[in-house]
Design goal:
Layout: H1 2-13, H2 26-32, E1 38-39, E2 49-55, E3 58-67, H3 68-71, E4 83-88, E5 94-101, H4 105-110, H5 114-121, E6 133-134, E7 149-150, H6 157-179, E8 188-192, H7 202-208, E9 211-217, H8 218-224, E10 241-249, H9 253-260, H10 262-272, E11 277-283, E12 307-311, E13 314-316, E14 319-320, E15 338-344, E16 356-366, E17 372-382, E18 389-393, H11 399-406, H12 408-426, H13 437-456, H14 463-476, H15 486-501, H16 505-511, H17 513-523, H18 537-544, H19 546-559, H20 565-568, H21 574-579, H22 586-598, H23 605-609, H24 612-620, H25 641-645, H26 667-673, H27 679-691
Helix pairs in contact: 1-14, 9-10, 12-13, 12-15, 13-17, 14-19, 17-22, 19-24
Length: 699
């Protein structure tokens, strides 16, 4: 049946269009950017709308507006791509990001849309030049960089990472086409060759252009400020230097080691880390001059206000490394003066092998009461030989790899649980056969499943994933959304393997957090003296078929693209009970709590009769290759003990195991291995005692 469904899905996929394009026309864009902004003509080559703003009688581009789905239709956790309206400024910064549409389950009926709206608002002001990462909730307040990190949302890790990737991928696509950056060195990191060193004096570095000098004389500054009323910046000769800066890229050993010395350069590179860059700026001008950008007012660890590094017309984020700027230990011949080392992170997209510019801004003030600041920029460009550098594969990799690195503790915990569970179930004469210790082990493992797999790792498998796969087959043809939730993906891989070997029950009976929660609630029935109801067989069989009807309805609604499909998925209470920790509106909470309370009377009623995920696993479990639960010839005829004890009703009257309905609690295995419980063994032992002859007394 599973094979037939797959063939049918693939056949129908050709008849269904791929993920849709953007939904906004010119009028729709205009509503998003009201006056005084004006929507220009749509680009002929790209689905991008220029947003114009009037400046001094003419119109300038305020932003380029576009929809993420036109450039990066990355399927979300629901299987369809989110659509975001993005406004990208000409300098590469995000003006605004808004959510137009999405099918992320956690934001539809769970947390609601407000946390998602607040999440995308964080991108305003950030730069598309930098790979922005989703951190933990309140990551910025905990010290994460506000330029490269946005605060994540608890219980929505996979969805927020997908949205982040959609924003960045689409923004870079537009940047390549409209802003002229983002195409070079894609997937590569340009780094200085660490073993390439040549002893050179300061004068030799200067003559080669490996150290650059920016000098601004008093006369040059006066000419730059001509007509502003602040031409004169103090007394002195026109040829006197008011700015005298030396600039050098320290990553290159032939530059950095010669300027700093071997020991200091080695310490710097260790602190800097791979892929990052360091630029030294030394001011040899008068230390007390107002134009000295590195004087006493310069703040260690800050982004300089007057000195900036740019490349390709875009400013690169460069921050002081907070090293001591005075003192001995620098290379021979280096001029005396204030100096700083500016750190450029790998996230800035800086290419040290391409021309880059250092700019010093001189600011003067006019007026005493209503003062006005007037600025002029002076720049020096550095171009280093390409053979000083190597292009290596970027270490960070695709955005989904960040999810795997961030979830390593959860993955290790899940791997440990699986490594513990498999030997216990496989060794049927081991712990499973111990009628005293095994129930305690099972109870503890179920508690761990709820606490760690469910609430800790957020790895509750769900029918939503199957619905996302259907959407991917029928519409998007992209399955990458699975990679953004590593714990669930690892668990899915194990479940598929266990389905083929042992059947459905390994997951449903041991690794499903909501299933474990139901079983723990049912365990309370005994101390509460609540007698559970045994559902009669004539009612039990029809009720078991309900879950298959629910599964078929959900998958059909998803394949047909019905908007109600996601609401129908709420038949599964996993999102309420596990993902959102019951933090929802009262009808959802009442439904989930009611299903849990039902277990005080009907053992795992939801799992047996209503769970669509369980139905899907039961169908796939029919591919099982092993009948691995032991049986005896006497099972069913005449012995019915295991059948009577099985609270799932998964043992037929003839003693056979109904694997699609078996939850592998292993109680029947404990019974069959226990000579004190297994009826055939008890009878055989009694019969043996009867036929053993008594010893003949001797005279």
């Amino acid at each position: 049946m599973a094979v037939l469904f797959a063939v049918l899905a693939l056949a129908l996929a050709a008849l269904v269009p791929a993920a849709g394009a953007g939904e906004l026309d010119r009028a729709g864009i205009a509503r998003q950017f009201p006056p005084p902004l004006v929507v220009g003509e749509k680009d002929d080559a790209l689905p991008v709308w220029p947003i114009l703003k009037q400046q001094a009688g003419s119109y300038e581009v305020f932003a380029y507006a576009f929809e993420s789905i036109d450039f990066a239709p990355i399927p979300g956790f629901g299987g369809t791509p989110p659509d975001l309206l993005i406004a990208l400024a000409p300098d590469g910064n995000f003006r605004d990001v808004k959510v137009l549409s999405h099918r992320e389950p956690v934001f539809l009926e769970g947390l609601g849309p407000e946390p998602l709206f607040a999440f995308v608002e964080q991108y305003a002001g950030l730069s598309a030049r930098q790979p922005i990462r989703v951190g933990r909730p309140n990551a910025r307040a905990a010290g994460a960089s506000a330029q490269t990190t946005v605060d994540g949302i608890a219980m929505a890790t996979a969805s927020t990472r997908t949205i982040n990737q959609s924003i960045l991928a689409s923004a870079l696509a537009v940047a390549r086409g409209k802003l002229g950056f983002g195409a070079a060195n894609v997937g590569l990191s340009v780094e200085a060759k660490p073993d390439l060193f040549e002893p050179l004096g300061f004068d030799a570095l200067l003559s080669r252009g490996w150290v650059r000098r920016l000098t601004v004389t008093r006369g040059e500054a006066a000419r730059a400020f001509r007509g502003t009323g602040v031409e004169e910046g103090g007394e002195g000769a026109p040829g006197e230097a008011v700015v005298d800066l030396y600039v050098a890229l320290l990553d290159v050993p032939s530059i950095g080691r010669n300027l700093l010395g071997a020991a200091r350069h080695a310490a710097l590179m260790h602190e800097l880390g791979p892929g990052n860059h360091a630029v030294m700026v030394l001011s040899a001008g008068p230390a007390d001059a107002a134009e000295n950008p590195l004087g006493e007012t310069f703040v260690l660890g800050s982004v300089p206000e007057r000195v900036s590094v740019s490349q390709g017309g875009l400013v690169v984020n460069a921050r002081d490394m907070a090293v001591e700027r005075r003192g001995a230990g620098l290379g021979e011949g280096l001029p005396a003066g204030d100096w700083t080392i500016l750190r450029i992170d790998s996230a800035a997209g800086f290419d040290p092998s391409a021309p880059w510019t250092l700019t010093d801004r001189i600011v003067r003030e006019r007026g005493q009461i209503l003062s006005e600041k007037i600025a002029r920029d002076f720049s020096v460009e550095t171009t280093l030989p390409g053979d000083l550098f190597a292009r290596v594969a970027a270490q960070e990799g695709p955005d989904w790899t960040e999810s795997w690195r961030a979830r390593l503790p959860a993955l290790a915990g899940i791997a440990g649980m699986l490594a513990l569970l498999v030997p216990v179930l496989a060794r049927r004469r081991g712990l499973v056969a111990d009628a005293r210790r095994f129930p305690a082990f099972r109870l503890a493992f179920l508690a761990l499943t709820v606490g760690f797999v469910g609430y800790g790792a957020q790895a509750q498998l769900s029918i939503v994933t199957l619905m996302g796969l259907v959407r991917a087959v029928f519409r998007t043809h992209d399955f990458a959304f699975l990679l953004y939730d590593p714990p669930s993906l690892v668990l899915w891989a194990f479940v598929l393997a266990s389905l083929v070997l042992w059947g459905r029950g390994t997951f449903c009976g041991w690794l499903c957090p909501f299933g474990a929660m139901q079983e723990l609630v049912a365990w309370l029935a005994r101390p509460l003296r609540i007698r559970q109801v045994a559902v009669p067989p004539r009612l039990d069989r029809p009720l078991r078929a309900v879950k298959y009807a629910v599964l078929a309805g959900l998958l059909a609604a998803t394949a047909a693209g019905w908007p109600a499909a996601d609401a129908m998925a709420e038949v599964e209470p996993f999102k309420t009970a596990i993902t959102l920790s019951f933090l929802r509106s009262w009808p959802f909470v009442a439904y989930a709590v009611g299903l849990l309370a039902l277990n005080l009377f009907v053992y795992k009623g939801f799992c047996r009769y209503l769970c669509p995920l369980g139905a899907g696993l039961a169908l796939a479990g029919r591919l099982r290759v092993l009948d691995w639960i032991p049986r005896r010839a006497e099972c069913g005829t005449p012995c019915q003990l295991c059948k009577v004890r099985c609270r799932y009703g998964a043992i037929a009257p003839d003693g056979r195991i109904d694997y699609p309905e078996c939850f592998q609690c292993m109680e029947c295995v404990t019974i069959i291995q226990d000579p004190g419980q297994c009826v055939p063994q008890v009878v055989a032992r009694r019969h043996a005692k009867r036929i053993v002859p008594r010893p003949v007394p001797t005279r």
